[in-house]
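Record pair follows.
FIRST:
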Amino acid sequence: MASVQQSSFHGFANPVDPSAAEIRAWAYQPDSVPLESMPADWDLLVSGDRLVGTLFELAMDRTCPARRFALHCLYIYAADGIRTKFRAHPKRRLRKLVETAEDEGDEPMAIWAHNVRVLLARPELFDYHDWCEGGLVRQSRRLG
């Protein structure tokens, strides 16, 4: 990843549909394109199947400057899948991410995995502020 971190990032060709390489480059230089300058609901736009693997890698990287943003996107991804009964995203993919976070992740990732399992078991606990507006990232806690 050192080469990505050392090269300068000059923005997204299409911010509404960024590539995995663009997201990765931005994540290591997030000040190059401030979140405030991105399209409205950019977090919701990028939290889909195409970029979830990249977002997961970034969230797993303790040194990534945009790690909290990536983790926030994982909360959106999980909630979107669960709330749509996995019409939005494959259940198998979410389960694999949760298992990897449990096996290899640090505390923030373990808490994310725990919270996803709680929401899987009890979808009625969904709270838009916590899952889609960053509440569980800003005030990290395990759901009961």
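SECOND:
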Amino acid sequence: MFNAFSIGRSALASRAFSTSALSGLLGKLNHVAIACPDLEKASAFYKNLGANVSEAMPQKEHGVYTVFVNLGNSKIELLHPLGEKSPIAAFLEKNKAGGIHHVCIEVGDINKAIKTVKSLGIRTIGDEAKIGAHGKPVIFLHPKDCLGVLTELEQA
């Protein structure tokens, strides 16, 4: 039978992320990052819903301010540009109201994860892990190799 589910399933089966080589490599969803043109307004939105919201923290190496909304089982990371060369500024130029920027998935061993994804032909942004907003090593995977989604891997 020809239906949308079977089309989606077969399309995904041909993508690198659906291979068994990543089985056991990927852990839980750490956060979904949202680029925000107004960080105070975005923070207030989640505070008004009763969420535990952190203060804004500058991440100079990454060119962003981050705010974390703790949801218990996961987080939302609010991002706002820091400096003229911020990748978030470029994102907001194209998406004036903001929007989902990336997803972050935990891995047990970041170096093994980098080696595995590269062996599968998945491009990384940068050659090695950098320290991310949680003080842990992270690396980003190219969205063109990840179903159109910028994906961050973070050492658990």
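COMMENT: Residues 18-155 form a domain with the 2,3-Dihydroxybiphenyl 1,2-Dioxygenase; domain 1 fold (CATH 3.10.180.10).
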